[in-house]
Write a structure and sequence with these properties.
The protein has 293 residues and is an alpha/beta fold. Helix content is 47%, strand content 13%. It has twelve helices and eight strands. The longest helix is centred in the last third of the chain and has 18 residues, at 227-244.
Length: 293
């Protein structure tokens, strides 16, 4: 079972002063689908779920499912560090009609490798949806080892891994050990090309929020064996990618969408507006890329 191949967008959540800006969110979804995005990932890190209530997250998931209307898969991010709550949220997303789940490794309280196996097994047994594991040590303080993923890959509805360790040797070992039982997606926009060259099936992307067509085309070029085009796109994107991560995600990407006139780049505390010097550099890089601001 494969949820998608290519470029999935880790979609931002636009806010008003009082809640979620669903008008802007709908426009973002349409913009993504019209420009070739292969999947929508909602309420992931880029969507600021840590500052959203459970009711807000469920409303965003339901809205995305309805707005996408089966045009592309909608993958709901329901991970957390409380297994019982992850199961509750995952079941709610399944009932709402999500196509799959993205579930981050538990953070703060963390877990042993055996604990990770027990956590994901419990969640997988509680839903019928396909699950993508999300490994992001820089956020969670723990790393899922390749041998652990290999064990989890034998569970039927664990079908993917978003790998954001930045460790290409680990990426390659995961792909080698799992022998095609899961789809591995780059969780680092700067490593889309090498991850796919190693056997990855695409990316769950931040830069795709602002450049969906180009991100999709990068992955499509790899699939058709046109590495020259893939390299050209990756190298052109990299200066913008670097600036999208010069401050904590999603501060820069929301600022970029604001420059494009797509959303009000409002953030929720503890995140704050992008530093003026960084914003000026991001604007200059986007203009240099050829974006109309």
């Amino acid at each position: 079972m494969q949820l998608f191949t290519g470029a999935g967008v880790a979609l931002v959540t636009p806010f008003t002063e009082n809640g979620v800006d669903f008008d802007s969110y709908g426009r973002l979804i349409d913009f993504q689908i019209e420009n070739g995005t292969d999947a929508l990932i909602v309420c992931g890190t880029t969507g600021e779920p840590s500052t959203m209530t459970a009711a807000e997250k469920q409303a965003v998931i339901e809205f995305a499912i309805n707005r996408a209307d089966h045009r592309v898969p909608v993958i709901a991010s329901t991970g957390g560090n409380n297994t019982a709550e992850v199961i509750r949220a995952s079941r709610a997303a399944e009932e709402a009609g999500a196509d799959g789940l993205l579930i981050v490794t538990p953070y703060y309280n963390k877990a042993t490798q055996n604990g990770l196996i027990a956590h994901y097994t419990a969640v997988a047994e509680s839903v019928n949806l396909p699950i993508i594991i999300y490994n992001v040590p820089g956020r969670t303080g723990l790393n899922m080892l390749p041998a652990t993923l290999e064990k989890l890959s034998h569970i039927d509805n664990i079908v993917g891994m978003k790998e954001a360790s930045g460790n290409m040797a680990q990426v390659m070992e995961m792909i080698r050990l799992c022998q095609g039982r899961i789809s591995l997606y780059s969780g680092e926009d700067g490593l889309i090309l090498p991850t796919m060259a190693a056997g990855g099936q695409g990316v769950i992307s931040v830069v795709s929020n602002i450049l969906p067509r180009d991100t999709h085309e990068l992955t499509a070029a790899v699939f058709r064996g046109d590495l020259e085009t893939a390299r050209k796109i990756q190298y052109a994107l990299n200066p913008i990618i670097d600036l999208l991560f010069c401050e904590v995600n999603p501060i820069p990407v929301k600022a970029a969408l604001g420059l494009m006139g797509m959303i009000n780049p409002r953030l929720r505390l503890p995140l704050t507006d992008m530093e003026p010097a960084h914003l000026a550099a991001l604007k200059a890089a986007m203009e240099h890329y050829g974006m109309q601001l």
